[in-house]
Amino acid sequence: MEPVHIVGAGLAGSEAAWQIARAGVPVVLHEMRPTVETFAHRTGDCAEMVCSNSFRSDDDVMNAVGLLHWEMRAAGGLIMQTADRHRLPAGGALAVDRDAFSAAVTAALQAEPLIDIRPGEITKLPSDGNWIVATGPLTSDALAGAIREVTGTDALAFFDAIAPIVHADTIDMSIAWEQSRYDKGETEAEQKAYINCPMTKPEYEAFIDALLAADKAEFHEGETAGYFDGCLPIEVMAERGRETLRHGPMKPVGLTNAHKPQEKAYAVVQLRRDNSLGTLYNIVGFQTKMKYGAQTQVFRMIPGLQDASFARLGGIHRNSFLNSPTLLDDHMRLRPRPNLRFAGQVTGVEGYVESAAMGLLAGRMAAAQAQGRDLPPPPFTTAMGALVNHITGGAEAKTFQPMNVNFGLFPPLEDARSGRRGRKDRYPAYTQRAKDDFTAWLAAQ
């Protein structure tokens, strides 16, 4: 049996390789790192997480991301299995020790006899064979050029920003305190998964002034600032209005200052644990394109971080993706070259979970093709099906932008109440319908 070739060993490529091998089909997994480096990656490990260490909400009843977690677990997904083994306290979210997580994914793939991991950069798109391109937002210039040649169009682009990471022992806990918003979580560790730094109104105003005045990284020639709203740099949010951050990542709701319980903070900066040792914390929602020197000065204005030492400062990079509604069919194949499937963020999904889910789906479809079978996509009523439907035809091609999974992508329910009050009943109905339909889809294989 001819192997399936996968380009890119990120979350999507790693998940695709696992699914294909588990189906009994050989895989060749091509990864250019560490031979060819990127500015954002630190290692040559598979499934390295370069931005946040969170897979977001793990609530599979009231949250579409949590539902996607459920579907990936039901399908035997490597990414979810590994995340569960290396999870950190994070309230209702699924956060992981990023280094242990990627090392474990790498070890699992290396131990699978049907997977052949080959280092080196792929610079051309082959015209035959069974291939999955899962190169992610940092597709190399050479391969991006090859994609443009085949598609006859330029990939769209936006900018994805990286949040800074702080050494925990440099946070002043006489000012900051541990608490998850609304004390969410079943264990004490989950209820204290975040470190909170309070701000008074004068402190917040001074912080905004410094943020707006700070030196920013400049764009390269030909690049435009078409940001994805789910990952806006904090300075861009501040430019949209002085109160924007206070109603976004710095909102003070659901928190009580353990040092001054009677005093309500005007704004709160949250930090989330970034490794299992609890020695590193990332600043939640603080993606930035400020220059490094400016970052250090501005972030040390945050009460509790005045003496902070940074393990990593924020950054910004171009994130390229296909106009998938015009280029991909519902089996994620490139219309001009159907021997090629695309998966992960390069297809126009946003987020670790969504990227891995598209890898899972592409892998199963490629394995079915190798075995002479046709695997239809999951029903649109499922999280995975709704997402792939959106990127391969459900979205408006002229205005196509990266998308997280959300209930707005799902077919509407019959007899469901609308508005905020209706969510209590509507979201569980969405998730139960999805679980039933996804279970049936798996059983039919």
Automatic annotation (TrEMBL):
Source organism per UniProt = Paracoccus rhizosphaerae
Q: Which UniProt keywords apply?
A: Cytoplasm, FAD, Flavoprotein, Methyltransferase, NAD, NADP, Transferase, tRNA processing
**E.C. number, please?**
2.1.1.74
- Listed binding positions for FAD are G8, A9, G10, L11, A12, G13
EC class, as a word, reads: transferase
Q: State the function annotated in the UniProt record.
A: NAD-binding protein involved in the addition of a carboxymethylaminomethyl (cmnm) group at the wobble position (U34) of certain tRNAs, forming tRNA-cmnm(5)s(2)U34. Catalyzes the folate-dependent formation of 5-methyl-uridine at position 54 (M-5-U54) in all tRNAs.
Supply the name of the protein: Methylenetetrahydrofolate--tRNA-(uracil-5-)-methyltransferase TrmFO
Q: Does the keyword Zinc apply?
A: no
